[in-house]
Amino acid sequence: MKVIETISDMQTQSLEWRRQGFRIGVVPTMGALHDGHLSLLELANAKADKTILTIFVNPTQFAPGEDLDKYPRTFEQDKTLCEEYGADAVFFPSVEEMYIPNASTWVNEEVLSQGYCGADRPTHFRGVTTIVTKLYNAVLPDVAVFGEKDYQQLQVLKKMTADLNFPIEVVPGKIWREESGLAMSSRNRYLSESEKEAALAIYKSLHMAADEVTEGTDLIKVRQQIFARIVDAGGKIDYVETVDSETLEAVDTANGGIRCLIAAHFGPARLLDNMQLN
Ligand code: AMP
What torsion, rounded to 10 degrees, do the Cα atoms 92, 105, 26, 21 define? Predict the structure, then answer.
């Protein structure tokens, strides 16, 4: 497995693989890898001949005061896992490599990125769409795998990839969970055992909602129940929304595919989770 640190070396390697007729898959991550990330790598391995996992803690998707500085960085361990799970390369650029000083060009998706996490973190998705475009340009992939764990992000990136005519297939990977049901996240490392236990209210309330919702169910009541359960467990909620699973429009009565999206703080961590309700 190769570790590649510059854009030009990455492009040279990808162009070489392309010339040899290989299909290239990419799994963009911020590192601190867990089984969720590795499941995406396995998916990429199944979809492509050569897979590249990228590790880059992207400063432009963090707002001032967020956890950029303390975000876990575990490169040696990540490298071993990538090797074990059959990546052909890890792309591990520095911030200076990815961002030219005074860069003033951004990629913005302007509809799907607006509500939910986009409302709570106004510059977040601009950072995500810009870095994924840059990673596409470095890796030159045929396939890009993103997790449903970050459901709004997945929809924004699908739309961006189509809108900008990237010849790239976006493949979603399902949410990987701890045995308890807690969605795996690099940020779970910030939680104590008791905070993890409390945070399970997110999964349990989603599960309860999924059991309850059928065609025509009043989703306002469902959201209120979820809200109460998370607050009872000590969570501080950013949002609980029920949305059309394609357009992300907020929906109050179950009709067609409904996804419930949640962002809530437990202890020092802002946790995201979501579930298809029908
Ligand atoms: P991150 O390193 O958190 O930026 O995530 C990198 C990729 O892994 C994104 O596409 C995430 O949606 C995905 N991911 C994160 N957590 C999980 C999980 N528990 N299950 C599946 N995919 C995940």
Answer: -110
CATH number at residue 247: 3.30.1300.10
Q: State whether 81 and 111 are in the same domain.
A: yes
Ligand 1 touching residue 127 (CB < 6 A) = no
Whether ligand 1 lies within 6 angstroms of the CB of 44 is answered as no
CA distance 168 to 233: 42
Looking at 152, 173, 194, the residue that finishes a domain is 173
- Domain extent, residue 191, equals 186-276
3-state helix, strand, coil in the chain (%, to 5): 40, 20, 35
Would the CB of 175 count as within 6 Å of ligand 1? Answer: yes
Q: By alpha-carbon position, which residue is closest to atom 7 of ligand 1? A: 29
37 is an active site residue: yes
> In this predicted structure, what is the pLDDT of residue 78?
98
pLDDT at 214: 93
Model confidence, pTM: 0.98
Atom 10, ligand 1: residue with shortest CA distance: 146
Residue minimizing CA distance to atom 11 of ligand 1: 147
